[in-house]
Amino acid sequence: MSQTQTHHAYWDEQQLTPLIDALVARGWYAGETFLDVGLCQDLHAELTRLEARQQLQEAAIGRGDERTLRRDIRGDAIHWLDRESLAQRRYLALMAELQQQINIALYLGLFEFEAHFAQYPPGAFYRKHYDSFRGRANRIVSTVLYLNPDWPSDGGGEMALYDEHDSEREVARVVPRAGTFVCFLSDRIPHEVLPTRLPRTSIAGWFRRNASLGGRVDPAR
Ligand SMILES: O=C(O)CCC(=O)C(=O)O
Ligand SMILES: [Fe+2]
User: Fold this and answer.
1) Stretch (H or E) spanning 209
2) Which positions fall inside the Fe2OG dioxygenase domain (predicted)?
């Protein structure tokens, strides 16, 4: 490999350039058929097994002492990725390479990636929120990969993204169909999950930079 060539093991330039450009220009990116269908199927099958074995936990909001279950804000059940399957390891390898490429292009100093499977049962939603707060940002770039093999037009459960300067202005509505991948700056882009009519599956993940809060290292979760 010559020094002027960049070599990516998984991603090619045609996929990464639009993602990086969109992150810089407007703070978010959404791409259909961004990820391999076979990998999405394997991840979806794993989530189905985890659910059957009751290995999903109801998701909380807040952190530390302030963690609470609030079904009126957030209704999903989750399982943190822990590299326990080949499919997880493949997905995490893809994200590790994406992290590297974002760092090269944007100097964000992304340091690690954490992610969980999520399942929204019928009727569930996640009200409009930011994934981190300015000045206390530990989560820098948010990601979502959808795993649902089919999604009817009346299925609901879209993710709505809002303008970074006007949190009332919707800028995109993303259908949670398998292979679609979204990423955005965690402290800039308000977003929400609209009520779903069908069980809705995804992997939500965050590229982090370790931030020290008052001398303590910010806890991971
Ligand atoms: O599943 C989605 O579309 C977004 C989930 C989300 O916003 C989150 O888990 O913070
Ligand atoms: Fe979020």
Assistant:
1) none
2) 106-209
Q: How far is CA 177 from CA 45, 163, 166, 191, 216, in A?
A: 15, 23, 27, 17, 39
Over residues 164-195, the pLDDT tens digits come to 999 999 999 999 999 999 999 999 999 999 99
ipTM, two decimals, is 0.99
Q: Which atom of ligand 1 is nearest to the CA of 202?
A: 1
Among 39, 45, 148, 54, residue whose Cα is nearest residue 92: 39
> Cα(62)–Cα(66) distance, rounded to whole angstroms?
5
Please choose, from the candidates 29, 17, 74, the residue with its C-alpha nearest in 3D space to the C-alpha of residue 171.
29
Q: What are the tens digits of pLDDT across the range 51-63?
A: 999 999 999 888 7
Quote the crossing angle between the two packed helices 86-106 and 37-52, to the nearest 10°.
120
- The token duo for 216 is 């303590």
172 lines ligand 1 (CB under 6 A): no
Is there an atom of ligand 1 within 6 Å of 193 CB? yes
